[in-house]
TrEMBL record:
Belongs to the glycosyl hydrolase 28 family. This is Pectin lyase-like superfamily protein. Keywords: Glycosidase, Hydrolase, Lyase. The keyword NAD does not apply. GO terms for biological process: carbohydrate metabolic process. SUPFAM superfamilies: Pectin lyase-like (SSF51126). One of its GO terms (molecular function) is polygalacturonase activity. The keyword Lyase applies. InterPro entries: GH28_Enzymes, Glyco_hydro_28, PbH1, Pectin_lyas_fold, Pectin_lyase_fold/virulence. It holds the Pfam family Glyco_hydro_28.
Length: 406
């Protein structure tokens, strides 16, 4: 386990949302109760921090900001439910590494649970639920009536020492858990749920973040289960903050898109990613490394192993022509670099196509090693524009492959 990078803190001071007028009837709007409670935690600043306890019940609320040295603790059968009145969602500035909202130009809607510049924050409990009630947002996306980019369920920015554990997340309007510009983040024992046709409901997206541990979780959503990102085209290149030191372990899930993904927004670079002991079912793509012209950035030292997939459209895809652009000002000469990738001990049943590797002529992939990959036979592989010849699927350990086999 890597979860020890952030210790679970025992906090002596505890308050309840009911102390601030919170009503768990599923109807009363509790936005002011949450804001008052968190204001109290911030300004009393008790030694060791404070627990905000959410008792059983359904607590309807608008979005709210967390503060440092706090634990948001959901009791069993506690539900924090997002209001469906989109007028209650404030706009915030776009991320500097994206230059605009990810879906629409301009700003973006604040995440349901948000924080910026925080330290020592825990979201946990007895497997209570945080419900984004995303259906209204999905319909706006489908009908093309969105004015600004949809909100995440949880986004923490510029923060350190974060634990998200033993909570169920469901029906996020957009991405579920989005640590961006963060370090020392643990996400474990979470369940993340959204319908398979819900648009862009990524499970966990570490973004320009370091020392991130994702373990022992179940994710079933409408988009990538875990996607490692680091900024979008010229904005990500300028911001220049990589994602590095990302560990993903003992993850189970299903999605019409990817199980383990890197990209496509990789402009700040991605390094030192380990994913292992992954079980996937009913997938679009099991493993997807994706980038594009204009991204720039270096993707390196990616290790993925011990993966089993059942029913997948494609087992492994490594591609340099995926993803859109923020505007027309991206640099056509900013080519990504992808190197030193090891994918081994991968098996599956009912996989329609084992894999596809589509490189870039002017920025070829290098050092890609596929070892002990059993996804229906080598004949189903498609490779193009890969430097030094085709990629070989080999039963040999990667260290024993000759240069012609890499």
């Amino acid at each position: 386990t890597c979860s020890g990078i952030v210790p679970m803190r025992i906090r002596e001071d505890r308050i309840s949302i009911e102390d601030f007028g919170g009503v768990g009837d599923g109807v009363t709007l509790n936005t002011n109760a949450f804001r008052k409670a968190i204001y109290r935690i911030e300004h009393l600043n008790r030694t060791g921090g404070t627990i905000l306890y959410i008792p059983p019940g359904e607590y309807l609320t608008g979005p709210f900001n967390l503060t440092s040295h706090m634990t948001l603790y959901l009791a069993r059968d506690a539900v924090i439910k997002a209001t469906v009145d989109t007028k209650n969602w404030p706009l915030i500035a776009p991320l500097p590494s994206y230059g605009r909202g990810r879906e629409r130009p301009g700003g973006r809607y604040m995440s349901f649970i948000h924080g910026d510049g925080l330290y020592d924050v825990i979201i946990t409990g007895e497997n209570g639920t945080i419900d984004g009630q995303g259906d209204v947002w999905w319909n706006m996306w489908r009908q093309r009536t969105l004015e600004f980019t949809r909100p995440n369920i949880v986004e923490l920015m510029n923060s350190k020492s974060i634990i998200i554990s033993n909570v169920t997340f469901k029906n996020s309007p957009f991405w579920n858990i989005h640590p961006v510009y963060c370090s020392d983040v643990v996400v474990n024992y979470v369940t993340i749920l959204a319908p398979a046709d819900s648009p862009n409901t990524d499970g966990i997206d570490p973004d320009s973040s370091s020392n991130v541990c994702i373990e022992d979780s179940y994710i079933s959503t409408g988009d990538d289960l875990v996607a490692v990102k680091s900024g979008w085209d010229q904005y990500g290149i300028s911001y220049n903050r990589p994602s590095q030191g990302i560990t993903i372990r003992r993850l189970t899930g299903s999605s019409p898109f990817a199980g383990i993904a890197v990209g496509s927004e990789t402009s700040g670079g991605v390094a030192d990613v380990i994913a292992e002991h992954i079980n996937l079912s009913n997938m679009g793509i099991g493993i997807h490394l994706k980038t594009n012209i204009g991204r720039g950035g270096v993707i390196r030292n990616i290790s993925i192993s011990n993966v089993y997939m059942y029913k997948a459209r494609k087992g492994i895809k490594i591609s340099g022509d995926v993803g859109d652009h923020p505007d027309e000002n991206y640099d056509r000469n900013a080519l990504p670099v992808l190197k030193d990738v090891v994918i081994k001990d991968v098996s599956g049943d009912f996989v329609q196509q084992p894999g596809l590797i589509h490189g870039l002529k002017k920025a070829p992939f290098s050092g890609i090693c596929l070892s002990n990959v059993s996804l229906g036979g080598d004949s189903g592989w498609q490779c193009s524009d890969v430097s030094g010849g085709a990629v070989r699927v080999s039963p040999l350990p990667c260290a024993e492959l000759t240069s012609s086999q890499q």
